[in-house]
Structure formats: C-alpha cells, structure tokens
Amino acid sequence: MSRDKKRKLRQLKQSIYIVCEGTNTERIYFEKIAEQPDVFEKYAIKVYPSEEDQIKASKKEGESIKTDAVNLVKEAKKEIKNYDEVWAVFDKDGYTKHEKAFDDAQKHGIKLGFSSIAFEHWILLHYEQNRTAFPKSQNVIDYLEQAGYFTGYSKKADISIYPTLKDRTQTAIENAAWLRMGMANNLAACDDKIYELNPYTTVDKLVIKLLDFNPVTYGYIKETLRISDYSITVNDVQRHGGITLSVCIVNHGKSGYLVNNLCDHFYLKDEDQNTFPLVIDTPIKIEPSSTQDIALEFEISSATGKLRLHFSPEPNEILIIALDNITEL
Fold first, then answer.
1. Which residues are within 8 A (CB) of 228 and not within 5 positions of it... i.e. 6 or more apart?
2. Residue 67's closest CA among 118, 23, 120, 103?
3. 78: helix, strand or coil
C-alpha cells in the first residue's frame, strides 16, 4: 500500500497495524475481526504477515518472515508513522527475549497483545475461568480438545477460529479481567513484568478496541472497587426466594445518584450470560460526596454456575464482582 493511500485511509478511518506471531492462528483471527462490517466501517486495519507478505518472502532467496517477539516489534517500528496505532501480538511459548521486546515496544509507543503461556489461553477464556500454568501451547490445545470446547484445533492449521469464538467474546473479556485480577499479587512480586507470569493475557484489550466492547474491572466480595464517580463494596449476600446484596456505595461525584427499578446499572449474570435485573420497591437517592448502605434485591428463577454482580454507571465501563459464596441454583 502506498503512503498516499495510507494517508487517505487515515482521513476516513482510524488506521491500525497489527503484527502477529506465527503465520496462521493469530493472523487469521484478527483478519476475520477486521472483516466484520462494524469494524471495517470504523478502522483501516493491516495485519502482518498477510498471505501476500508470505508469498513475497517465499520468492526471495535467503529471506524468511521472522515473527518472534523482538522481530515483530522491529517490524512494527517501521510502520509507526504510517498508522494511528501499532500493535504487536505474541506469546511466551518457548521464547526467552521478551524483556527486550517489551522495552522496545514501550520506548516506541507500540501496544502489546501478550499471552502467557500461549495465545490459546485467550481462546480457553472464551469457555471458562482458568488459571492453570500450562507448560506450553500444546498443553492448552490438548485441554481444549479434551474438554470438548474446541475440537480439531491446530496451531498450524490455516483455519478461521473467530466465527467459532465470536458469540463468546464477552465471556472471554470478562474472564481475562478475572485472570489479571487473580494474578495481581504475582505481577507486583515480579515488578510488573507480565512476561514472567503464567498465565496472563492482554489480547482482550485489542479485541475490546476493535469490536467496541466495554472494558471490564473485576473484583470480589468485601473488596472496595472504584468505577467512574462511585466506589462500591458488596459486604454480604443473602439467599431467599432470590438474592439480596448488602452494598456500600460512595458517591464521589457532584450529582446525586438514583437507584430504582428503572436503573439498569445493577444486574446479575450467570456463567451463560443470562441477566437478572434489579427489583427495588422504594427508590434510593445517594447524595453527592456521601456514603450509603443499601440492599439490592434480584429475582432469580434459574441460573447456571456462579453469579456475578455487574455495575455499569457509565455506558463505557463495567465493574464485575464475583459472588463466589453463592452455590449453584
């Protein structure tokens, strides 16, 4: 693509350059996302190494496409001036020079979609919350096969995995936030060097951007969490005909906050993404710069697996609190 054409694309759409490890799985995954109508309308996306890149390299004697982490960042650096954003997507599986790749990426403003131990852990998060430190990618692939989640998957196969995963993207994003929350102490212990962790992933951050999903913060009962102008703590959970949560809310903003039946900021979800809305008889107003304890009631007819409280006071943010002391209904 000529520079003039790239400049024209930048005027019409935000341009994004994504360099991917390997030549199949990750590349095809992001190419398929780029083809989605809503994504195509908003972004001009180039994924490297494309089939065209691979064909050109194969015709040049003595040349090959190197998609290890350091060389991917090197490739990404070439296109920084030609695109609005540049991303490098790679994993840890068997590689040892991640510190250099991370340092170079940070120095040049390259964003990273990193997975440890493998990109396949991001795939696994579409199906379950899993914090297993798999030794290598093949172990994750074997798990996906044995669990019946994704049969016939192969890292080297020239297949598109996005159509299979598409409807589970929200679950994967939530589970990736859960994983990072669970690994927070490990991350602090290694001075925020995420390439030293297993498991870990930030692939969801690129997926959130491209597909316009809401970013997710994850927490637990009795943990105080901040989102937008509010801090929220779930102090207790009671089972009866439904679920009642004892919640403390701090309003840090300058406007009052009204909680009533029309408020869709609070809702419960189960592991199949079924939604259970808030039921409240008397509206509650939380004044600016104030703290209030309230009871949130939810009617639950049937649910699958563990429940999670979702709090979304702004349209572009979601806070999830795992109600892990609730048994399956």
1. 253, 313, 314, 317
2. 23
3. helix
What stretches of the chain adopt beta strand conformation (E)?
A: 14-20, 43-48, 85-91, 111-116, 200-201, 216-220, 225-227, 230-239, 243-251, 257-259, 266-269, 275-279, 284-286, 290-298, 308-311, 318-322
CB-based contact 277:298 (threshold 8 Å)? yes
In the predicted model, what is the mean pLDDT of residues 31-59? Answer: 88
End-to-end CA distance of the chain, in Å? 56
Structure tokens at 187: 């991350």
Residue with tokens 């990736």: 176
Q: What is the gyration radius of the CA atoms in the chain, in angstroms?
A: 22
**Burial class of residue 16 in the structure, from the number of CB atoms within 10 Å of its CB (0-12 exposed, 13-18 middle, 19+ buried):** buried
| Burial of 168 per CB tally in 10 Å (0-12, 13-18, 19+) | middle
Q: What dihedral angle (degrees, nearest 10) is formed by the CA atoms of 23, 24, 25, 31?
A: 90
Q: Which residues contact 145 (CB under 8 A, 6 or more apart)?
A: 151, 152, 153
Quick one: tokens of 298?
A: 């939810």
Q: What is the CA angle 21-66-39, rounded to 5?
A: 40
pTM greater than 0.85 = yes
In 50-91, alpha helices (H): 51-58, 69-78
Residue 132 and residue 232: Cα distance in Å, rounded? 30
Using one digit for the tens of pLDDT, what is the confidence trace for 166-221?
Answer: 999 999 999 999 999 999 999 999 999 999 999 999 999 999 999 999 999 999 99
